[in-house]
Structures are given as structure tokens and as C-alpha cells.
Design goal:
Radius of gyration: 29 Å
Largest sheet: 7 strands, antiparallel
Structural class: alpha+beta
Shape: globular
Strand content: 15-25%
Number of strands: 22
Number of helices: 24
Oligomer: single chain
């Protein structure tokens, strides 16, 4: 390919990839499969390697680039990033509303409209774009200057490296714009991060805000990229050529340029509307998937804001109406060591029950033995407890009791020498205490059974936490493989079981005894191996035997597997007790394995029977999931696309097919039903 052709193809690929990034990370409406996206991305990488002079800073391949920094530069903001006046007292909110209305009335304005937004509990940042390209990003800092975190923000997939060119009639991308937004970590990602940190013997983060701030301030962008973050934009700090009259128009402009904006924003003209919104958002708080600590009320009219002005610290036209803190004071009755699925022994405070945020809390984590010592928390102490969203309740601090003499306090708590569940001697890994008896410790075994049966693993319906604990406590399951030896007659006499439920669970176990390799790998609970890594390992090695026999170098050939992960995986397989359990488990299961995936850019891909063909799937399939159907196509070299065009070779139509089937008929594209598609793949040598 000559340089001119490559330049044109690179521009097309970048445009397509940016469009798909916007649909996936901002709109949550992907239109192509992961495999199709990966193929575009690999083609772009290959062309940029061939023509390095064509690589640009805003290319999708350059999100994580450069060497680790030794320190962050100081960057002056385009405009001051002021804080907001805030309170949780309704009376203070009413005074804000009265002052604002009085100030506007004095200036001859009686109309008041507010924009209401959730107050995200993250890290406030500034993004500066010139000619549509991200120039730099900075933390809020002191409001006038912040730390330059450009390389780290570039790793956030919802942050466009180049602003999206709007459609006809929408606001064009300005030559300069400084955007304010909030970097957050979703609670699911936070929980996974803490689980990994604990498994590695590291200190977990106290809350998602701290985790997001810690990720953004990593000197190595690779470390930031490993901790998925999100960014919501909510203000324009400064700009050239942007004509907007209201905050609502600001939000519309940000959306149009490809930035993620909260879909929970509303408008109101009354104080009652503010209170109703505050109540509604607080009720949704625990179901949002990210942390918020109140709502933000902003005057919608930008010209009217200028009339009201600012104090030295905050604008007079905005107010943060906070939620009541989810903290209460109670007393610790006892401190017990609790063994988790990964073997980490966590001190848990058993307390006098207390209601926090509408939930009765009687247990709270103390994290690890060093945390207990640092806070000097003992049995009988009064403590302040916090609950934030889906985060496990935690003891924040001990409350001093001057009336109690020091000698009246209980002795300092210490971690036991042996596992409270299996009596195995405990070992210390950094600040954490761990039971090394992974597969036979009853407490760990119950957790492993639940994980093994979870939706992304073997998906065994009816095998939840209480049932797993009961199987272990009753001695029905001593090791994971014994699950598949259970009989219905053993279950019918257990609490919560009857003949039908017992038979249903046995049937579910039988159904699960032929798992896909990637589900099996995830279910094993191998350190560092989540859903996506399990899928990548299965696709790369094809068989469990090949993976199990791989050394660290071989594992690192899998995209996304680094030295640390490779070390953890090989250590898991080489542990004698683990090997014994795996051997026994393989006698009970029949893994569904496939040949290793052929990279689409390899010479071998060109000789696959459906190489270069495009297939679109629409409607519901009965014998395959959509993902399984797409993977079959990709194994044969075809490309599963999201839209029908003249270049589409087949459209596979399932139940309740939509407009794609009509598009196929209009364009004369061949249509297959599910039987026809299965016949096609069988014709080319794939057994189903």
C-alpha cells in the first residue's frame, strides 16, 4: 500500500473507531461486535506501524502512550474552578432560593429556572480542547492551578481525544473550549479493584472517590488504564466561538461534541421541584452504579448569572444540596475474624444494630489487623460507622469516652494464629492475614462454590450463598468436584428443599457439567482472572491442557496479560493441592473447547473459508446466543457487522427480527434463518 492510500485508510479507520467509541462508551448503544471493532483497531495499529510518520496524538491507538512521569506539571486553568456553597439543611436551601430571587428581582428579572444535576462524588478535572483535539487535562487543585494529568485522562475511554463533529444544525466544534467534568469509578469496578488488591495483599481503597483520585494520580498511565474510570462533563469554563444562553444549552453542546453528560438532569422553576428531585435522586442513590452525595442546583440563564456574580469562593447562582451523611454511632459487641473466598481473613465488628441510610447495619469491616491497631478499636468501644452506596459498612473511628477509665477497655484485639474455619496456620502477606488452604477450607470452599455457580461461570441456577454454606456445613461437599456427585435424595431433607427443588438443582448441575472453557476458567477463581481475561485465555489457548501447561512467557503472549498476572496464573496451576482438585474436577466435567483463535491479521486468516464475508444478525436465535453465533462466524473468517449494506453477504434472521431484515430485502442481500446459518457453518467444517 502506498503512503497516500494508507493515509486515506488511516483517516477512515480513525473516524470509524471514534464513532464506535462514542456509541459504546458515551451512548451505551454499540452497533458492532467486539470482534469487528478489534479488527478495525488492529488494522489501524498495523498501518501506523508501517507509516509511523502518520501517527497523530488524537489517534485511538495513542490513548496509552509515553513513558511514566517522575512528577505532574502544574497547569493554570482557563478560568477559576470554584467550589459550591453547600449544606444538607433544607432551611439553608430556602435561604439560597430567596436570596437568588431577590437579587434577580432587584435587577428587573422575575423569571427563575433551575437546572438540577446529581452531585457526582469523584474528582473534578478540566479538559482543554484546541481545534477539537484534547490538548491537556488538569485536576482542580487550588481552583486556579492544578496537576497536569493529561496522559492519564487520555486512558479514560469516555473522554474523546478529538471532539465529535456534530450533525447538521448542531453547534460546531469551537477552536478552543475548556470543559469541566467529574472523573468517577463505578462501584462494580471499585469492588473488583478492592477484591484484587486484597488478594494481592495490598490495602483496599475506602471508597470509589479515593480509588478514582488514586488512579488519576498514577505516574504511569498504564496503571491508570488498568483501573477503568469514567468522566461526566457538566460545564464550559471558557471558550471561543461558543454561543449558548443557558446551562441546558451547555449540556446539549457537550453531548453534541461527544462528551458523556448525565441523563438525570432536569429543570424546574420552583423550590418544591428542587425538593422533589432531591428526594427522587436520593431514593435512586444505591441503584445508580456510582457514588453521589447530593444534587447541584444551578440558575439556567447564563446572563442572569452575571447579574448575581460570585463571592471569592463560590458562585451566588449555584448551590449543592447534600444528602444526610450515612454515618451513625454505635457500640462494638465483638470482633470476629471472617474468612473470604480468596482466603483473606478480615476482622469484622459485630455491633449493636443501627440504621444508616434506611438500612439496618449490625456488621462492619475493619479491613485488616494493621487497621484495627491503627484505629485502636476494641470490643466494647463506641465507634462511628459509615455506609456508602454498595460499599460494605466500615468502622471509621473510635469515639472517645472520657468517663471510661483506660483499664476498663477490653484488651487490644489480635488476629488468631490459625484459620477459624479449618485450623490451618495463617500466613501474613503485607497487612493482610491469609489462610493458604484454598480449596479445602470450609469458609473458602463455600465462597468458591458460589463463584463457580455464578452467572459468568457455570451459571448453576439455585446454587446461591445459603445453599453453598449448607452443603459445606452438612458435609455434603468437602471439595469442589463433589458438587457433581450430589443426588436428589441427599437434598430433599435439607432446609429449603423439597422434591421438585432438589431435582431442579441436580438437573442444573448436570446441565452445567459441559461448560465452555472461558466460563470454567472464570469459575475457578484464579487470581487476576476475571471474565474478560478468562475469555482471552480460552480464545488464545483453545484447550485447558494447553493453558495449564503454558509458562509465564507463553501467557504473556495473550493481549492484556502482563508479568504479574502470568506469575499468579502459573502459581495457581503449580500449587499441588490446586492441581489435585483440578484433576478431580476434570473427571466430572466435559469442557467445551475450541481450537485457538486465528488472529485476523495473520496469513492463516486469509485462507479461512468465509474470509472477507460480512454477516449481520437480527432478531432472537433459539439454539445459540447472539455472541455464540458471532463467534462461529469469526472462527470461519467472517466479520459480524451491525448494519446491512450492499457489501453484506448474509443477514441471519431470528425471531422478532427488525428493520435489518427489511433492509436486506430492499438491497437484495441473502437472508438465512437459524437453520440455514447452522447449515452454512457445518458446511464449512464446524461441528455444533
Amino acid at each position: 500500500m502506498d503512503r497516500k492510500t494508507a493515509q486515506e485508510r488511516i483517516a477512515r479507520l480513525r473516524s470509524d473507531i471514534r464513532h464506535h467509541d462514542y456509541l459504546y462508551y458515551v451512548k451505551d448503544q454499540p452497533t458492532v461486535s467486539d470482534a469487528a471493532y478489534d479488527k478495525l483497531y488492529r488494522e489501524l495499529v498495523k498501518l501506523e506501524e508501517q507509516f509511523p510518520d502518520l501517527v497523530s496524538a488524537d489517534s485511538p491507538t495513542q490513548r496509552v502512550a509515553g513513558q511514566p512521569l517522575t512528577s505532574f506539571p502544574t497547569i493554570e486553568h482557563a478560568a477559576p474552578m470554584l467550589s459550591l456553597d453547600s449544606d444538607q439543611d433544607e432551611a439553608t436551601l430556602r435561604r439560597f432560593d430567596e436570596r437568588l430571587r431577590k437579587g434577580l428581582a432587584a435587577a428587573g428579572t422575575s423569571d427563575v429556572e433551575y437546572v438540577l444535576e446529581p452531585k457526582l462524588d469523584g474528582l473534578s478535572v478540566e479538559l482543554v480542547y484546541r481545534d477539537g483535539v484534547l490538548q491537556h487535562a488538569a485536576t482542580r487543585g487550588d481552583g486556579r492551578r492544578g496537576e497536569g494529568i493529561t496522559a492519564n485522562v487520555r486512558t479514560i475511554l469516555s473522554v474523546p481525544l478529538r471532539l465529535r463533529e456534530p450533525a447538521a444544525g448542531e453547534r460546531p466544534v469551537p477552536p478552543f473550549v475548556a470543559v469541566r467534568g467529574e472523573v468517577i469509578m463505578h462501584t462494580e469496578v471499585f469492588d473488583q479493584l478492592n477484591e484484587r488488591l486484597i488478594a494481592e495483599g495490598n490495602e483496599p481503597f475506602a471508597n470509589p472517590r479515593n480509588a478514582a483520585a488514586g488512579a488519576v494520580r498514577q505516574l504511569d498511565p498504564q496503571m491508570t488504564a488498568a483501573r477503568p474510570l469514567d468522566l461526566y462533563a457538566y460545564d464550559i469554563l471558557a471558550s471561543e466561538g461558543v454561543e449558548v444562553a443557558t446551562q441546558w444549552e451547555v449540556l446539549e453542546a457537550l453531548r453534541g461534541w461527544g462528551l458523556r453528560v448525565s441523563d438525570l438532569v432536569e429543570r424546574t422553576e420552583t423550590l418544591d421541584g428542587i425538593l422533589a428531585y432531591h428526594k427522587g435522586i436520593e431514593e435512586k442513590r444505591d441503584d445508580l452504579g456510582f457514588e453521589i452525595d447530593g444534587i447541584v442546583i444551578k440558575l439556567n440563564d447564563l446572563a442572569a448569572r452575571e447579574t448575581l456574580g460570585w463571592t471569592s469562593r463560590h458562585p451566588r447562582w449555584a448551590f449543592a444540596f447534600k444528602f444526610p451523611p450515612r454515618k451513625e454511632i454505635t457500640r462494638i459487641l465483638s470482633i470476629l475474624p471472617s474468612v473470604g473466598r480468596t482466603g483473606v481473613v478480615t476482622p469484622v465488628a459485630i455491633m449493636l444494630p443501627v440504621e444508616i441510610g434506611g438500612v439496618t447495619v449490625a456488621r462492619a469491616t475493619l479491613h485488616n489487623r494493621e487497621e484495627v491497631a491503627r484505629k485502636d478499636v476494641r470490643e466494647g468501644d463506641r465507634v462511628r460507622v459509615q455506609r456508602a452506596g454498595d460499599v460494605i459498612p466500615q468502622v471509621i473511628e473510635r469515639i472517645e469516652e472520657p468517663e471510661r477509665a483506660p483499664e476498663d477497655r477490653a484488651p487490644a484485639w489480635t488476629m488468631p494464629a490459625v484459620c477459624p474455619s479449618c485450623s490451618t496456620p495463617l500466613v501474613e502477606r503485607g497487612p493482610f492475614t491469609v489462610c493458604p488452604n484454598s480449596f479445602e477450607c470450609p469458609a473458602q470452599l463455600a465462597g468458591r462454590i458460589v463463584h463457580f455457580a455464578s452467572r459468568n461461570a457455570l451459571d448453576i441456577e439455585g446454587l446461591g450463598d445459603e445453599t453453598a454454606k449448607m452443603f459445606v456445613a452438612q458435609g455434603l461437599v468437602h471439595q469442589l468436584p463433589e458438587l457433581f456427585d450430589l443426588k436428589a435424595e441427599q437434598l430433599v431433607h435439607l432446609e429449603g428443599f423439597a422434591e421438585k427443588s432438589a431435582n431442579n438443582l441436580i438437573a442444573a448441575l448436570a446441565k452445567a457439567s459441559h461448560p465452555e472453557l472461558q466460563r470454567f476458567l472464570y469459575g475457578l477463581g484464579i487470581p487476576e482472572v476475571g471474565v474478560s481475561v478468562a475469555r482471552d485465555l480460552a480464545r488464545h489457548f483453545g484447550t485447558f491442557a494447553a493453558l495449564r501447561g503454558a509458562d509465564e512467557a507463553g501467557l504473556q503472549e495473550v493481549p492484556g496479560v502482563g508479568p504479574r498476572m502470568a506469575e499468579q496464573i502459573t502459581a495457581f496451576f503449580r500449587e499441588p493441592k490446586n492441581a489435585e482438585v483440578l484433576d478431580a474436577l476434570l473427571t466430572k466435567l466435559q469442557l467445551v473447547e475450541t481450537a485457538p483463535a486465528v488472529p485476523s491479521d495473520s496469513p492463516a486468516a486469509a485462507v479461512l473459508p468465509l474470509a472477507g464475508k460480512k454477516i449481520v444478525f437480527t432478531g432472537g436465535l433459539t439454539r445459540l446466543s447472539r455472541r455464540e453465533a458471532q463467534e462461529l462466524a469469526e472462527r470461519l473468517g467472517a466479520r459480524a457487522t451491525g448494519s446491512v449494506s450492499k457489501s453484506t453477504d448474509w443477514v441471519v434472521v431470528g425471531e422478532d427480527a427488525g428493520s435489518k431484515a427489511d433492509d436486506a430485502r430492499k438491497l437484495g442481500v441473502a437472508i438465512l434463518d437459524e437453520d440455514g446459518y447452522l447449515a452454512l457453518v457445518r458446511e464449512h467444517g464446524v461441528e455444533i
